[in-house]
Each structure stands twice: as C-alpha cells, then as structure tokens.
Amino acid sequence: MKPREHPLSGLFAAAMALPIVAIPVVVNAQASGQAPSSSSLLPAGAAVGVRSLWYREDGNRMKVTEPVVWMKTPIGDQWEIGSSATVDMVSGASPIITSNATGKPAQIYTGASITDRRKAYDANLTRKYGELNENTVGVSFARSDEKDYESKAYGLNTTFDFNERNTTLALGIGSRNDRVMSVTDKTLDRARDAKEVLVGVTQIIDRRTLVQSNLVYTKLTGYLNDPYKLTFSLYRDGLSPRIASVRDSRPESRSQIAWLTRGKRAIAGMDAVVSAEYRFYRDDWGIRAHTLAGTWLQMVNETWQVEGGLRYYSQSQADFYRREISQRPIPTISSSDQRLAGFGAFEPSLKVIAKIGDHVSVDLSFSRYMQRGTWKLGGRPSGTEGEYEPLRARLINAGVVYRF
User: pTM score, two decimals?
Assistant: First the structure.
C-alpha cells in the first residue's frame, strides 16, 4: 500500500462494474455508447472526453486533483483503439505515525505539507469477430510514474455473446509490475507484482432488466509494506517505561477475491432506471468487506438527467492490524495503518447529466464520503470508539464528452 492512497481506495474498487483488466475505469465508463455520424477527421462512433476529479478531506488534510483526457475510435468494422492520460496532483498532511502517548492510539499527521504528482497513461486495442461481430478480444497496456512508485500493467480480455445475444461472457487476465521507492530512504527499491484473473457474465432478463456479475482473483507478491508508516508505542518493562518504534511490516504475498453483482431495471412509465449492487471481498490477510449501493437515474427530458445514489462500505480488520505495539517480543508482522482496520463508510451522491445537441454531453457529480470505526457491520467493542480517527471528504467529478 502506498502512502498517497487514502481510505477510499477500497470503496473506489467496489464501484467497478465489469472491469477490463489493466484499463482505467474512467475510459470504459465514459467511452461507451455509439454516436450519430458527422463530418469529421474521426469516423462515426468515435468519442473524445475530458474529465476531472477533485477530492478534499475535511480539516484541510489531503487534497487530490485528477484531470483525465481520453479517446476511442473504431478502425473499419472490426477494430477499435482507445487511450487515456492523467496527472494526479496530491497535497496535504499524511498520517505517518500512530502513537499512544496520550493514553489512546491516535494518528499523527506530518507537520509539513506533502506534495506528489503521478503521471499515467494507457492504450488498448480491441478486435470484433463472429458473424455479427458479436465477440471481442483485446489487449491493453498502462503505465504510471511518480517520485517513489513506478507501475506497468498488461492485460488480455475477451467477450463472447450467445443465447441470441442475451448473454455475454467476459474473461480477462492481467499482470502488473511495480517498483516501490521512498523519498526518505534512497536505498529502497523493491518489486511489487500482481496477477489478476476475471470471469464475468452479463444477462439480459427482459427488455427492461439486466443483471451483471463478475469474479476477480488477484495475487500480490513482493514488497507490500508502506515505507512511511511508523508505530510509536509507550509501554512498561517491569517498572521502567519503554518506547517501541516499529515500522510497518506486512506479509510478502496477498490473495484477494472480489465478487460483484449488479442489477439494472428500467421503470415503465417513469422514464427512470434503478440499479443496485452488492460486492463481497476477502483476502488472506483476514479482511472481509461488504459493499451495498443503489442509484436512481431519472430522465427529466431529452436534455437533462439526474441520478441520486447511496453507497455503504464495511470491512473487518487485518489479522496483523494493531492500534499499538507494546508486546514483547515485537511481532514480525504488524501494522497500525488505519486502512487495515475495521471501519464503515457511507457515501451519498448526486449527479446531473446534460445532452447538448447531437454530439456533446456534460456531467457534474458531488458526493460526500463519511467514515467511522463504529459504522462497520457489528460495530466496535464498547470503549474503543476513540481509537479510530473518523474521516470526511468531498468529491466533485465533472466531464465533457464529444461523440462523432
């Protein structure tokens, strides 16, 4: 886990509908749909877009700005290419130390502002085949670079339509090769790798109902520690006070399984589409997570659409998560990173979509992320409420799409 990641990472992962391995979600989500023909250098069906995310934590802590540009275009009747590029700009104070100096474990934020910038891009190529071009096979490549992290990802995916094109089977494999470094330890340069397998099914139930389900298995190996995390614990050795300073230490492998099922239904006579999803996640670090989400998309008229949604997320803590490390001998594997703790989170959202003319659409969404230790399923034991620091954040997402 990287120091720049915030506790929303698990929640964002849960939002993926049917992920194509190694291709950013923003590209797939915004590039979908066909477009009317127009006189252009690009063929009919092509699309380009610009999107930006603004993330702000309460208390002027972490801030993230992420602009994205993307495009996709068909080549003839059977080929399609797509690409995207983004720059993540991160600033704020990061919680790097957990200390029990006040009598209770608490996150301590850095006094100086942390800044980071990540550059990323991807490209993908898809070929359609079959009597009606109903099947696809595609390859993808993605790369990102920042001052303490480098990543390269490769993917291969395919889809098959059958049952009179009412059923789609999706298969995918992916590989990611990363390098972990540190701005405070110039000697650190370790590998972190990931392998991923995807199996998914989309089923049309009737002309107004669709169900989608996918299973993803991921295997992480290598350096999985956070090089910046430190646990500072006060304890007694007999009558003498002692100080334990322990760096983040996690297993060098992690197996993850995520199963997501989503349903969509158009409401007859109301010009609306309702959707609901459930995602279950587990790994061999002991974390179990559940995500429940629902949205209501209302077509106001031919120009305007409004979508409201609510998402709930809950996870249990990792087996080696400790709020303080005062036992002896010091555990070989331990971490006080709150992203590995048990917590729950709510995220209500509102999105407005406008179609401008035949080719342009714009959208703007706002969501409020609220996270507490006591909100996880089953709650927390009495007397531990102050041991988990709450998090609140605001997210704004805006985009413009031009379809040719």
Answer: 0.85
Contact 23, 142 (CB under 8 A): yes
CA 32 to centroid of chain Cα atoms = 19
How would you label 351-362 residue by residue, b for 16+ Cβ within 10 Å and e otherwise? bebebeeeeebe
Three-state DSSP class for 385? helix
How many helices, marked H, and strands, marked E, lie in the chain?
Answer: 2, 20
Read off the pLDDT of residues 2-39 as tens digits, 9 standing for 90 and up: 444 443 443 333 333 333 333 333 323 333 333 333 34
List, in order, residues 6 or more apart from 81 with CB less than 8 Å away. 72, 73, 75, 123, 124, 125, 126
For residue 1, give every residue at least 6 positions away whose Cβ sits within 8 Å of its Cβ, in sequence order, or none. 224, 225, 226, 337, 339
Residue 238, exposed/middle/buried by CB under 10 A (0-12, 13-18, 19+)? Answer: exposed
The DSSP H or E segment spanning 145 is strand 135-146
Query: Beta 230-237 vs 95-99: how paired, if at all?
Result: parallel
pLDDT tens, position by position, 211-243? 999 999 999 999 999 998 887 777 666 656 677
Supply the DSSP string of 69-112, one letter for each residue: EEEEEEETTTEEEEEEEEEEEEEE--EEEEE-TTSS-EEEE-SS
Q: Which residues pair with 127 in a beta bridge?
A: 79, 137
| Residue-wise pLDDT tens digits, 301-338 | 999 999 999 999 999 999 999 877 766 777 889 988 88
CB 214 within 8 A of CB 200: yes
Strand partners, 91: 63, 115
Residues 159, 21: Cα–Cα separation, whole Å: 13
- The upper half-sphere exposure of residue 360, i.e. CA atoms within 13 Å in the direction of its Cβ, equals 6
Virtual torsion, Cα 254, 251, 324, 327, nearest 10 deg: 140
Please give the backbone phi and psi of residue 385, each rounded to the nearest 5 degrees, phi first.
-60, -35
CA angle 280, 62, 55 (to 5 degrees): 65
Q: Under 8 Å CB-to-CB from 72, ≥6 apart: which residues?
A: 27, 31, 46, 47, 80, 81, 82, 83
What are the Cα distances from residue 342, in Å, to 77, 92, 229, 282? 50, 24, 18, 13
